Task: structure prediction
Amino acid sequence: MERQVAAPARTSAAEQLAELIGRSSSTVALTGAGISVPSGIPDFRTPGEGIWSNVDPFEVASIDAFRRDPQRFWQFYRPRFSMLGDKRPNPAHVALATLERRGLLAAVVTQNIDRLHRAAGTRELIEVHGSIATSSCITCGRSYGLDEVEALFDGRGIAVCDICPGLVKPDVVLFGEMLPVAAIERARQLAAGAELMICIGSSLEVFPAAGLPELTLANGGDVAIVTKGPTPCDREASVKLDGDVAEELLAVLAALG
Ligand code: ZN
Result:
């Protein structure tokens, strides 16, 4: 007679990640465009979607374009500013802020400029591509908050400083611009020192995000991936969650208890 043997309970990927988080004494999250998709911000690499579908970003959103033709730059960037300014954090952003508050997450390194991690309550935040939170005069350095920029546009639709004739530029890294050295250095230190790096909503193809999981692995840490679609790090990852980022992170929080 055949005896029914109960199959061992399969641990879900969310449970596996929760276990890794529980074991790690230093966990860092690296986030990309995918974490903001549930907030209604399309990933510009998704073909046919979003504000980048009809323009060449290198043509309009580069530092050269900004210097050469600020009117055209702002024609493109101004609606983007107001679109991003209205967006709110989603449960994935909130889940990371919750992990930090519970002492389970040391920092968030993000490629996003949408300031939604800050809005969700993340305190240790490294924005390697800058943020739309502020814009600065490229001549005198005067800084303006997101809400103040709209008042700076002249009749040509160019944002001009109110204390000098200088142009005002968003404090985001435009194509062709140097990445902020201090932020990159901090991100590399965090990655190298992490026992666990959780890569969320990033295709891990764009520098500097591409190199950070490798630093964690090279120093003996684990890498976890919470991203739809393949990434170059999938093979080396200890666990991969490829569902909706918000649902996956909520499942991880639930598994942590
Ligand atoms: Zn100025």
Remarks:
- Residues 62 and 176 are 6 Å apart (CA to CA).
- The chain has a mean pLDDT of 90.
